[in-house]
Amino acid sequence: MREDIDWAARRLEAASRVVCLTGAGVSAESGVPTFRDAQTGLWSRFDAEELASPEGFERDPGLVWRWYMWRLDQLKAAAPNPGHFALAQLAGLCERFLLVTQNVDSLHEQAGSGEVLHLHGSLLHFRCNSCAAPHHLTGEQRRAESPPACGLCGDLVRPDVVWFGESLPWDVVEEAADAAQGCDAMLVIGTSGLVYPAAQLPLIAKRAGAAVIDVNPEPGPISSIADLFLQGKSGEILPALAGSVADRRANA
Ligand code: OAD
Predict the structure, then answer these.
(1) pTM, rounded to two decimals
(2) Reduced to 3 states, what is the DSSP secondary structure of residue 18?
């Protein structure tokens, strides 16, 4: 493992542009459930694909609202873990570093990462389901059994996240794809690599000649195309990796 970390550190240090793609796994050690873990994942407790969909919201807005407020409560109780902090540190050590996340939590920002592209939106933001006007929730609305009405058009307010069957924000996807095309190294952290277009980004980087480094306790579609698979938890591997890059910089 030490040699693998050193190899990855060399690639990051030499890269003029690094892109990092994160998924639910980077927040697992903060106690935020991943999506597909059979025992504790969000999918095991709820039919997440039904709740996180325009059809589910239309059928039962109160149920969807309460599910999101439960997830928001979980998030409020969570704090960034050493993996989040290591990524913020790496951003300061690399020449150019862009963090792209599929996560709707804000743990990267809380750990000090400045520029974060959110492919799937944010659990902390709300907007009107029809006119898209942003909405700031009051404490009372947070505790309510059903979503509030938009002050502008009267339709229901919803979380500003991407639901199943909805398109991702095209400008964010374009920026992430451009960065993947132009990077020299891509770190992929804690994602099952099953959901597109996010899962396409490591392939774009690989085809453009970048070194792809996958960090995950389990092998999967990304590790099979990666130049290096660092098998383990991001909260353990990323601090070692950031430490190695920092040492190399200090000794340069
Ligand atoms: P998944 O739940 O599909 O995958 C989580 C990944 O994290 C798995 O590959 C785990 O092996 C890995 N993992 C678990 N613990 C880890 C740890 N401590 N360190 C590193 N990795 C760990 O989550 P995503 O790939 O993020 O989309 O899912 C992608 C998208 O699917 C989500 O953004 C969501 C969902 O549908 C939307 O909500 C639109």
Answers:
(1) 0.94
(2) strand
